């Protein structure tokens, strides 16, 4: 028997470059944050079981605005531009940083941030900074380790433990767009937060 999808309805609402343009009505929001190319837009598509709802690319810097998706007619998923990619022009990086910061500062609707990190790497300075930021603003977050399919089972366990030690007070979950079980589990965590 096939289970009913948790996020059974999803529509793109709008892209904005400032918070005053955010969509109405105001609804609870879940945001997806992380370095450029970590897999934010791909993760969204996987959660929503839509191939091209959020645009993805193998080149960092694909998502340039704040994108709102209406889910189950009840809340928004928010796909943000990535940060931390060294090769992008400095003015663009600063612009996106400001965009992300203004989003986080003004989002009283934000119920949970999913902070994505590449499962293959060590904790990056920019990710640590972002986590500090979320703590400072009392925004609940969970750490999602992306591209888990690229690691062996053993290595993934090792990385999970490493990140759990780095974030002892937060959930750390593995994720791959190729693993249905991991997609389902993340969807359940998000659903519980919204209840
Ligand atoms: P920006 O919008 O530039 O910040 O990037 P993003 O974080 O939205 O990343 P995006 O979803 O565009 O994915 C970047 C690249 O990683 C693409 O080539 C994806 O196909 C690939 N990718 C994302 N998730 C996974 C995954 O779980 N497994 C594998 N193997 N590749 C992935
Ligand atoms: Mg993106």
How would you describe this structure to a colleague?
This protein has a single domain (10-194), classed as Rossmann fold. The protein has a seven-stranded mixed beta sheet, sandwiched between helices. The protein has five helices and seven strands, in the order ββαββαβαβαβα. By secondary structure, the chain is α/β, with parallel strands linked by helices. The protein binds guanosine-5'-triphosphate and magnesium ion. Magnesium ion (MG) binds at residues 40-41, 62-63, 79.
Topology of helices and strands:
Elements: E1 10-16, E2 29-34, H1 40-48, E3 66-71, E4 75-79, H2 90-106, E5 110-118, H3 125-136, E6 141-146, H4 153-166, E7 172-174, H5 180-194
Parallel strand pairs: 2-4, 2-5, 5-6, 6-7
Antiparallel strand pairs: 1-3, 3-4
By CATH's scheme, which homologous superfamily applies?
Answer: P-loop containing nucleotide triphosphate hydrolases
Low-confidence stretches: none
CATH architecture: 3-Layer(aba) Sandwich
Q: How many structural domains in the coordinates?
A: 1
Largest sheet: 7 strands, mixed
Elements, N to C (H/E): EEHEEHEHEHEH
Range of helix content: 25-40%
Q: What structural class should be given to the helix and strand makeup?
A: alpha/beta
Helix run count: 5
Q: Strand tally, please? A: 7
How much beta, percentage-wise? 15-25%
- End-to-end Cα distance: 25 Å
Q: What is the CATH topology?
A: Rossmann fold
Just give the CATH class. Answer: Alpha Beta
Bound molecules: guanosine-5'-triphosphate, magnesium ion
Shape: globular
């Amino acid at each position: 028997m096939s289970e009913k999808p948790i996020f059974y309805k999803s529509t793109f609402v709008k892209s904005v470059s400032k918070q005053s343009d955010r969509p109405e009505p105001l609804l609870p929001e879940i945001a997806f944050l992380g370095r450029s190319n970590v897999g934010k837009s791909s993760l969204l598509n996987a959660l929503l079981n839509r191939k091209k709802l959020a645009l993805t690319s193998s080149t960092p810097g694909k998502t340039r605005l704040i994108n709102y998706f209406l889910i189950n007619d009840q809340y928004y998923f928010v796909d943000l531009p990535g940060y931390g990619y060294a090769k992008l022009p400095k003015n663009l990086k600063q612009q996106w940083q400001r965009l992300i910061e203004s989003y986080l500062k003004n989002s009283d609707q934000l119920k949970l941030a999913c902070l994505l990190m590449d499962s293959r790497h060590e904790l990056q300075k920019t990710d640590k900074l972002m986590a500090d930021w979320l703590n400072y603003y009392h925004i609940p977050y969970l750490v999602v380790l992306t591209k888990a399919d690229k690691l062996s089972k053993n290595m993934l366990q090792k990385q999970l433990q490493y990140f759990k030690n780095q974030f002892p007070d937060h959930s750390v979950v593995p994720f791959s767009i190729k693993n249905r079980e991991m997609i389902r589990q993340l969807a359940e965590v998000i659903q519980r937060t919204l209840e």
